[in-house]
Amino acid sequence: MTTVPLTAETFAAAVDLNEIVLVDWWASWCGPCRMFGPVFEKASETHPDIVFGKVDTEAEQTLSAQAGITSIPTLMAFRDGILVFSQPGALRAKDLEQVIAAVRDLDMDDVRQQLAAQKTA
């Protein structure tokens, strides 16, 4: 699978309807974004079961603001519709692979229990 552009209209559905979604928040003028882009694209080819989405922060300013994006590139990972990772900065290929492995290995029942405990606290 290759990367897919995400917009305000498609973002929520992509996150809600897929088990794992990685999102690269980027802009064409951003040097680190241009360096991370090929790394992200290559990973999308290696992991066809994961949705690799890209949000152009210039074209999707409202969506970027809603997501709290203050620095680009920012990588977000969603699993079962839950944000489980968010970090600004370009990652090297091996670091992106570590993030993917960590997201795959999450015990989502435990994650949901932690979220429920935070809401009641």
Strands, helices and their partners?
Layout: E1 4-5, H1 11-17, E2 20-26, H2 31-46, E3 51-56, H3 61-66, E4 74-79, E5 82-88, H4 93-105, H5 108-120
Parallel strand pairs: 1-3, 2-3
Antiparallel strand pairs: 2-4, 4-5
List keywords for this structure.
single chain; 121 residues; alpha/beta; Glutaredoxin; 5-stranded mixed β-sheet; 5 strands; 23% strand; globular
Structure, described:
The structure is a single chain. The protein is an alpha/beta fold and 121 residues long. It has a single domain, classed as Glutaredoxin, CATH 3.40.30. Helices cover 45% and strands 23% of the residues. The chain has a 5-stranded mixed sheet, with helices on both faces. A hairpin with a 2-residue loop joins strand 4 and strand 5. The longest helix has 16 residues. It is globular and about 40 Å long.
Q: What level of helicity do the residues show?
A: 40-55%
CATH superfamily, called what?
Answer: Glutaredoxin
Total helical segments: 5
CATH overall fold name:
Glutaredoxin
